[in-house]
Amino acid sequence: MTATGDGFVRVAAVGDVHLDADVVGRYRPALEHLGGKADLLLLAGDLTRHGTAEEARCVAREFGGLPVPVVAILGNHDYHSDEPEAVASALRDAGLTVLECSGTVLSCSGIRVGVAGTKGFGGGFAGACASEFGEPEMKAFTSHGRELADRFGASLAGLDCDVRIALTHYSPVPETLLGEPLEIYPFLGSYRLGQAIDAAPGVGLALHGHAHAGSERGMTPGGVPVRNVAHPVIKQAYNVYQLSVAPLLAPA
Ligand SMILES: [Fe+2]
Ligand SMILES: [Fe+2]
What we know:
By secondary structure, this protein is an alpha/beta fold. It contains seven helices and 13 strands. It has helices at 28-31, 53-63, 84-93, 136-157, 191-199, 231-234, 246-249; strands spanning 8-14, 40-44, 70-73, 97-98, 102-108, 111-118, 124-125, 128-129, 163-168, 203-208, 217-219, 225-228, 239-244.
């Protein structure tokens, strides 16, 4: 079940595994069988519990040396100890690709699969979103989300590939937050991420985490399927999504 010229790519994904020394090993048995089920594995952030380098080494043990390429972003938990570079470095040492407002292109049996990623940030959604007005703290909160979304959008649009995948920790749409308290939506995602995804051509799938009590399925206003792959939502080591590339490969 790999991309063997049938025009499909099988994308495994999970987020919010929140690994530490007590949890390491929980996912590995299922991950060992990934080679027969997927072409790549995407990790949607919150890989550690408190963002320490020691916890990142647990993530490296859990997700290193797998039979498929692994591409990750960090989540807000991975920033908690103020050493996100050490966390990212431990993951890279294990062979993972770590993105932040950047992208990578993988070849899956001749299909060029582009993945752009960012942690992203909050800010809210249409009709209930933060604005760059008033106190400097409010401006900083809002502008941080805008800047990340802008840089992420440029990375996504700039990929030279056959199909694009958007990987964020914060949600690009409100639909996949269904189940979370409405009051915290501005801390769970931003419409700006959705705008960035819709502005790029040929995005086949958008994946995010962060909303542990949210819902799996949503869609951007432009029609890109969105999946919340937070582990508490999908309730298994990973989900696999089949991504059709055929329309993009067909002659114009
Ligand atoms: Fe989380
Ligand atoms: Fe999170």
